[in-house]
Design a protein that fits this description.
Layout: H1 3-19, H2 39-44, H3 71-75, H4 91-102, H5 109-125, E1 129-130, H6 137-143, H7 147-158, E2 162-163, H8 182-188
Parallel strand pairs: 1-2
The chain binds zinc ion (ZN) (2 copies).
């Protein structure tokens, strides 16, 4: 993209934001920039943070030390070093996540990336590559974008590392994760 293109794009966006101010995805309150959320909805988000299992990220009721593992991970360590979730999936964030995944709200990617950075900055610091979980090609055709791919591209840019969107390949089309319990989601994957 040339400098002129970038300037034009910025001007058109500024004009559109003045004419139709972006709205909070959760409560429809007008907001300054297309971050997705107003400040009060942003504050309602429940972030996951320490103390938690060093491997699977499950929360501990109290601090049990550095790199502590939960009972399940102590019995059988998962085949990865760290897994982290940014948010507790509840009423505060559900609308935003579903709009991003299924409602073509790809403009929410910057806000979601920032949320992922809160617990995940230390992982990104030592990452050599960032790779998204791929969609099955039939789902990619119907959705038209891989929501995880957009996030991984942004994370790679922030972490000054490489995004490798085709590192993994999904060979089976699985059922939707929507409406399934935690155990059901695990079985599905
Ligand atoms: Zn709001
Ligand atoms: Zn664990």
């Amino acid at each position: 993209m040339t400098r002129l293109h970038r300037m034009l794009k910025k001007s058109v966006k500024a004009l559109a934001d003045n004419l139709w101010p972006p709205l909070c995805i959760s409560c429809d309150f007008p907001i300054q920039d297309s971050n997705g959320l107003c400040s009060s909805c942003w504050a309602r988000m429940r972030y996951l943070s320490a103390p938690q299992c060093y491997a699977c990220g499950v929360l501990f009721p109290f601090d049990v030390g550095v790199q502590a593992l939960c009972v399940a991970c102590t019995r059988s360590h998962p085949p990865y070093e760290n897994a982290l979730s940014a948010l507790i999936y509840d009423d505060a964030c559900r609308g935003m996540i579903l709009a991003y995944k299924h409602g073509y709200r790809t403009d929410l990617a910057p806000a979601l990336t920032r949320m992922m950075m809160r617990p995940g900055a230390f992982l990104l610091e030592r990452a050599e590559i960032v790779a998204p979980i791929p969609l099955h090609w039939t789902r990619l055709m119907s959705r038209r974008y891989n929501q995880a791919g957009l996030l991984s591209n942004r994370l790679a840019k922030i972490g000054r590392t490489r995004s490798v969107p085709d590192l993994l390949m999904r060979t089976k089309r699985m059922g939707s994760q929507g409406g399934k319990s935690s155990a059901g989601r695990r079985r599905n994957v």
